[in-house]
């Protein structure tokens, strides 16, 4: 801690991070041990966070992340979308295919930004807000590949006909962006995705990741 930082705020944020990393919640005693502070301090932190709906306590006294966090989270998508748009526009125009940014939303992959090419006679229609299971489609599978290989670059993922008959996709995960789990990809009508498309998607994912850091 430095003179310019708040110890209380730091502890409160640490509480939220600890709770976000568990599915079953934590007790006051458990939080006290992990934070290295006494139970009175933890009670005060939880009471303040609960007033803002950032945490909730169940009947057994275990603290969990509250619904107030969702309201904060909704504001993340517009910021991420804005940062990603230049790279997505460049990707769509270069490849001549619909480009998209997809983020994890629970067990689903959620398209939060989509750019269609301006010069093609036809292309796949793909809308922001479209969601699908993470284990189907290039966008979701690219994210899962990054989870399976957290210390390396998994490259790009290719799929064909998994979300729409006749359509194939290529996607690469966003790497090195704290708090954001997602991928950048394209979807096109083709039998085979050209090799350069996969490489171009990887480059676009890197551009978006750099814009978000």
Automatic annotation (TrEMBL):
Origin organism lineage: Bacteria, Bacillati, Actinomycetota, Actinomycetes, Kitasatosporales
Domain of life: Bacteria
InterPro entries reported in the protein's UniProt record: ArsR-like_HTH, GAF-like_dom_sf, HTH_MetabolicPath_Reg, Tscrpt_reg_IclR_C, Tscrpt_reg_IclR_N, WH-like_DNA-bd_sf, WH_DNA-bd_sf
CDD domains reported in the protein's UniProt record: HTH_ARSR
Residue stretches making up the IclR-ED domain: 68-213
Name the UniProt record assigns to this protein: Helix-turn-helix domain-containing protein
Keywords, in A-Z order: DNA-binding, Transcription, Transcription regulation
Xref: Gene3D superfamilies: 3.30.450.40, Winged helix-like DNA-binding domain superfamily/Winged helix DNA-binding domain
Organism: Streptomyces dubilierae
Stretches assigned to the HTH iclR-type domain: 6-67
SMART domains, sorted: HTH_ICLR
Pfam families according to UniProt: HTH_IclR, IclR_C
């Amino acid at each position: 801690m430095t003179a310019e930082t708040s110890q209380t705020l730091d502890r409160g944020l640490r509480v939220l991070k600890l709770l976000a990393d568990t599915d079953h919640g934590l007790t006051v005693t458990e939080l006290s041990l992990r934070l290295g502070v006494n139970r009175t301090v933890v009670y005060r932190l939880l009471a303040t966070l609960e007033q803002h709906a950032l945490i909730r306590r169940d009947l057994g006294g275990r603290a969990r992340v509250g619904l107030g966090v969702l309201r904060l989270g909704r504001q993340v998508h517009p910021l991420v979308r804005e940062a990603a748009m230049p790279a997505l526009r460049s990707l769509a125009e270069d490849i001549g295919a619909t480009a998209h940014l997809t983020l994890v939303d629970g067990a689903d992959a959620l398209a939060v930004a989509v750019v269609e090419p301006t010069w093609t006679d036809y292309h796949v229609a793909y809308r922001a807000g479209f969601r699908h299971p993470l284990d189907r489609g290039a966008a979701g599978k690219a994210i899962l590949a990054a989870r399976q290989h957290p210390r390396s670059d998994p490259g790009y993922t290719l799929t064909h006909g998994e979300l729409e008959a006749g359509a194939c996709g290529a996607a690469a995960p966003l790497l090195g962006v704290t708090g954001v789990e997602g991928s950048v990809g394209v979807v096109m009508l083709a039998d085979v995705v050209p090799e350069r498309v996969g490489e171009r998607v990887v480059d676009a994912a890197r551009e978006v990741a750099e814009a978000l850091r």
